[in-house]
Design brief:
alpha+beta; Lipocalin; 2 helices; 46% strand; globular
């Protein structure tokens, strides 16, 4: 009887963890920025905040010629950036990192679908 009870509890916990992990953190009725809005927002501007993947602080200057340079956790980075399918993508060391962006109550946010994480972003 103990084995059945333990198995039932373990199954319930597993289901709870799976359902929590798959919850979409994006607020309902949010409209993601489109290609044109993303280009306007980032062209010749500096973005800062925490990375949506690892939560490290960054400050990156996005140039209108499709290049960027900046820092992530005091490490210098540079590469190219582009917009594809309403995602802003950055190529760093031959790997593309893409994310969606939206504005809510006057504040911009980055949504990383791969990590299922939202972080605020400051644009200057």
């Amino acid at each position: 009887m103990k084995k059945i009870l333990i198995g039932t509890v373990a199954t319930a916990i597993s289901l709870l963890l799976v359902s929590c992990a798959s919850t979409n953190p994006v607020p309902k009725n949010v409209v993601f920025l489109n290609d044109s809005e993303i280009k306007t927002l980032f062209n010749d501007k500096t973005a800062s905040g925490l990375t949506s993947g690892s939560g490290k602080p960054y400050e990156i200057k996005f140039n209108s010629n499709g290049t960027f340079e900046g820092t992530i956790s005091s490490n210098n980075i540079s590469g190219t950036w582009f917009v594809k399918g309403n995602d802003k993508c950055m190529t760093i060391r031959n790997r593309d990192y893409c994310s969606k962006h939206y504005k809510l109550n006057g504040e911009y946010f980055t949504y990383n679908e791969d990590k299922n994480r939202i972080v605020p972003i400051t644009i200057k």
